[in-house]
Design goal:
This protein is of the alpha/beta class. The chain folds into three domains: 174 residues, Rossmann fold; 190 residues, ANL, N-terminal domain (Rossmann fold, 3-Layer(aba) Sandwich), CATH 3.40.50.12780; 113 residues, ANL, C-terminal domain (GMP Synthetase, Chain A, domain 3, 2-Layer Sandwich). It is 35% helix and 25% strand. Helix 3 links the parallel strand 3 and strand 4. It is globular.
Length: 564
């Protein structure tokens, strides 16, 4: 089944049912399934008539969560084209790479985005059209765009609405297949450049089928959309799944209003990264301690009335919280359960569309496990040691076709039809999956963001004052979830000497360290903030290397004495 078919089926069966609930100017607004499909058709008409989008074309999408973002994605894929979602937090250099690598012919961008629209012109050879959507509309200057035509989203919809509703509408002329690529989702690579995972319609709908079988989606479910939809976990779990099941989704306004929006929207399912769930948990605990009567009842063991009050603060209907995107602290999950909230953990990767495992809801939490393998998904351990620990591999209809325009990287992650996750772990006798470490050097922060050290090192090493660097994950004392980014850098003696000559003085060791830290900050400015090292450690001799010149990364770790 395709994404288009799931939407059309839900619109036919549940036309007047609310598909999306969102806030504008302080008031909640709604879109029914029939209205959402009409918006998708209108966007598709504009893409074909104005941007000349055809099946197989790549169309990029950069913006915050909104019904418009969702409609644009479903319009692109409904035409048989490929959607290329872009993280709004990326810097221009990173956005340029994705647009150029994907060959995107058009970009639909939230007008509130800080990306330099005109700076993209000339650096993305295939880009011909930019459409701005959202509330903040700048003056469009096609003269500055150098070959790129700028458009206003609302005007295009008004101009093409009649054709979208009439006979021969563009949306009706194209029929994507299950094996067609629906999206390139870019994930950082070990070579330091992001790679586009080619995910088909069938990959996403297969993962929906697995999720539905695991958690049993109910007709009156309401998914709270908190995580950014360009993230594969949010896209599949909070957009594809509710649309395919004909249920509702409700959008938070921002991370600052999560608690308020949950109380107002009354969701039944909340999917989030551990950091966000931790904030919710701590806020609930603080509220409990501040409530004298509630705190007394809790201490006396009379907890059901307290739990009922907590549930009311969360809208009164919440039946499930799922943590994903990064490992969750078992204590957090148990703490939420103690408050009367069913909380479980899932595991997956972008290349798997993305969910592979989830903790069962009818069994106690198993500490350290990321759950059981989803229905219709296979997993096995490759190259296991005596303890049964090896590289986890997955197989199923949810696994990507490969990395776009990168056959070498694709070959590296497939073996005999199995996708190699790069994660080390084991499966116990009861079928629970445990992650013990990462074969790759991937850093996962508390927000569930993936940071590949090679990408950051590539930027740092551009400095003439730095000979080489190693970027590592570290966990500050007292923290149990996620990692921070740290860097160890080796000064380039020739570069330092040249700078000393230009300034006609010798630097002290302290001055060199200060210069190097400033250089790191300067070089990584081109990357998203979450990739920036929080600690920089200076090493005065070169790193130990293999016979082929590769740094023995495993020999190094961040010192707790290194200042942040």
């Amino acid at each position: 089944m395709t994404l288009k078919e799931t939407l059309e089926r839900s619109a036919q069966k549940h036309g007047d049912k609310i598909a999306m609930k969102y806030k504008r100017d302080g008031d909640w607004q709604t879109l029914t399934y029939r209205q959402f499909l009409a918006l998708v058709r209108n966007v598709a008409e504009a893409l074909v008539r104005v941007c000349h989008v055809r099946p197989g074309d790549r169309v990029a999408l950069l913006g915050a969560n909104s019904p418009e973002w969702c409609a644009i994605h479903y319009a692109i894929t409904g035409l048989g084209a490929t959607a290329v979602p872009v993280d709004v937090k990326l810097q221009d250099q990173e956005v340029t790479h994705i647009l150029s690598d994907s060959g995107a012919a058009a970009l639909l961008m939230d007008s509130a985005s800080e990306a330099n629209i005109y700076g993209l012109a000339g650096r993305c050879p295939n880009l011909r059209h930019v459409i701005l959507f959202g509330d903040r509309k700048p003056e469009l200057d096609n003269g500055r765009a150098r070959g790129i035509v700028m458009h206003d989203f609302d005007k295009l919809l008004a101009e093409t609405q009649a054709q979208a509703e009439g006979h021969g509408a563009a949306y009706d002329r194209f029929h994507p297949k299950e094996d067609d690529v629906a999206s390139f989702i870019y994930t950082s690579g070990t070579t330091g450049r992001q790679k586009g995972a080619m995910l088909t319609h069938g990959n996403f709908t297969a993962n929906f089928k697995s999720i539905d079988a695991a958690i049993e989606i109910l007709p009156d479910d309401n998914f709270m959309v908190i995580l950014p939809l360009h993230h594969s976990f949010a896209f599949t779990a909070c957009l594809v799944t509710p649309i395919a099941s004909g249920t509702q989704m409700s959008f938070v306004e921002s991370l600052r209003t999560v608690g308020e929006n949950i109380r107002e929207a009354s969701p039944t399912l909340v999917l989030a990264v551990p950091l966000l769930l931790e904030k919710v948990y701590n806020k609930l605990l603080a509220g409990l301690k501040a409530n004298r009567a509630g705190n007394l009842l809790w201490k006396l063991g009379i907890r059901n009335p307290v739990r009922k009050g907590i549930m009311e603060k969360l809208g009164g209907r919440l039946r499930l919280m799922i943590s994903g995107g990064a490992p969750a602290d078992p204590q957090l999950l148990r703490g939420l359960e103690e408050l009367g909230l069913k909380a479980r953990e899932g595991y997956g990767l972008t290349e798997c569309a993305p969910v592979l495992t989830i903790s069962p809801f009818d069994a106690p939490i198993r500490p350290g496990s990321c759950g059981k393998i989803l229905p219709f998904v296979e997993m096995q351990v490759f190259d296991a040691n005596a303890e049964g620990v090896g590289e986890l591999a997955a197989k199923g209809e949810n696994i990507m076709k490969g990395y776009y325009n990168n056959p070498a990287a694709t070959d590296d992650v497939f073996r005999d039809g199995w996708f190699l996750t790069g994660d080390l772990g084991y499966v116990d006798a009861d079928g629970y999956v445990f992650i013990t470490g990462r074969k790759k050097a991937l850093i996962v922060n508390r927000e569930g963001k993936n940071i590949y050290p090679e990408e950051v090192e590539l930027q740092i090493n551009q400095s003439p004052l730095i000979l080489e660097s190693v970027v590592l994950g570290y966990r500050p004392v007292g923290e149990t979830v996620g990692e921070q980014v740290g860097a160890i850098v080796v000064p380039d003696e020739e570069g330092i000497a040249a700078l000393e000559a230009s300034e006609k003085r010798k630097f002290s060791e302290q001055e060199i360290e200060a210069r190097l830290r400033a250089e790191v900050k300067k070089q990584v400015a081109a990357l998203a903030d979450y990739k920036h090292p929080r600690r920089v450690q200076i090493r005065w001799e070169e790193f130990n290397k293999t016979s082929t010149g590769k740094i023995k990364r495993y020999l190094y770790a961040m010192s707790e004495a290194t200042p942040e």
